[in-house]
Amino acid sequence: MSEAFAVDRLFARHGPAYRWYATVTVMLGTLSVVLASTIINVAVPAIMARFAVAQDQAQWLVTAFLAAMTVGMLLNAWAIARLGSRRAFTLAMSVFIAASLVGGLSRHFPVLVAARAVQGLTAGMIQPHALIVIFQVFPVARRGQAMGIYGMGVILGPAVSPALGGVLVDAISWRATFFVVLPACVLALGMAWRFLPAHGGTARSRLDWPGVVLLAAGMVATLWMLAALQRRGPGDALVLAGMVGGPLLLVAFVLRQSRAVEPLFDLALFRAPGFGAGFALSIVMGAGLFATTYLTPLYFQQAAHMSPTAAGFMLLPAGIAMALVFPLAGHLSDGRASIAVIATGLGLFIGATVLLVASSGTTAAVWLIAWAALARVGIGAMMPPVTTASLRLLEGAAMDRGSGIINFGRQFGGALGVNLCAVLAQYVNDAQLHAGTAVSRAAAHEAGFDAAFWALAGLFALAFWPLAHMRRSRRRDAG
């Protein structure tokens, strides 16, 4: 049975309302995995205390999820082609539910990290389903409306997750952050059997398994090496192996993609002038988005001595501000103002991080809320125009492949940003405590977070260089 025929049969069975049944199904799945990706951030201090781990170890709760999600996104298209939409979605959702249960019940930190990695892998396979189903069930004239609903759902999930996570940690336990998404997951699983098309996949679908393995192994080795460098030292045999082997595996992945008939990562797109600059901006944007999502709740709890609930509600205005600025940035990115909007977003984010550095544990809460919101507004201003400006440089079918690469860059940047910022914060924190001076633990935390925020500000300042390259490329195209 073809996919189009399967969709037509479901329309015949359920009527015009079917498109909304299908959309709600995949949106429940998307909202669940987006919520799971961010809700744990406010629980990190409690998990660090429970398992007696430092920040350079605890960051794996986020890094493992993001890195695995990057790989899962590359598996999604193959899984749908091979298994069909319904089976691919339900398989991924079933594994996600199992991983959430294992994570919530785990008694050992490595098991917890492994559960997060499996959550991330399946989340990467679940999230793209929403866009695919929307394009299947909505006519061209109504896709914009559906995409608006989808976009608001994806943005509002992270907006409410810190507050929800903080309440759960204080009222129940950090384990509740793994269980809270399960009702929506089970509902999405049941609805998928009824409303997603059950067309059969094709055995002709091929996946570049060696490429997947090279990418996954390269990312894990590189991220582990960066995290272990401080604790083990550069002379450690395993650190040296990761230092050499991780980058080599990533280079091998790139070389394979340059020769593959059906590459996971189409390097030919980088021949378009300015697209490489857009990819670099997406990496920077991902680093800022996910690193601040990880660092800010820790900062509020460890340096400003707030409870998880208070820290979560402190971040609620920031999430709402990002959700509100997102549609405006998307509207402006349709015109020639996209470069100016990106530059504004970079400037706002740099200003927010500098203001967070200037803050301290005694700074009034209203100012901390304002600086966190300003950082989110900067990211929200960047996201639509970075994607739009990058894809505008491509033509035809290349735009679909380009979209996947831009999303890949954002996720990869997020994993790298969280990893490096957590390691830097822990390094400075330990250096302050062992300097021989009378430094309080809160002051040491403050110094560590300041170093991480300075690093992000520097990274975003460097991003003006690829932005200038993208601007020159657009001028050449216009001429």
Automatic annotation (TrEMBL):
Pfam families: MFS_1 (PF07690). GO terms for cellular component: plasma membrane. It is a multi-pass membrane protein. SUPFAM superfamilies: MFS general substrate transporter (SSF103473). Coiled coil: none annotated. Its main location: membrane. GO terms for molecular function: transmembrane transporter activity. It is found in: Cell membrane. The chain crosses the membrane at residues 20-48, 60-81, 87-105, 117-141, 147-169, 176-195, 207-226, 238-255, 275-300, 312-332, 338-358, 365-383, 451-468. The keyword Plastid does not apply. InterPro entries: EmrB-like, MFS, MFS_dom, MFS_trans_sf. Keywords: Cell membrane, Membrane, Transmembrane, Transmembrane helix, Transport. Residues 22-475 form the Major facilitator superfamily (MFS) profile domain. Belongs to the major facilitator superfamily. EmrB family. This is Multidrug transporter. It comes from Salinisphaera orenii YIM 95161. The lineage of its organism: Bacteria, Pseudomonadati, Pseudomonadota, Gammaproteobacteria, Salinisphaerales.
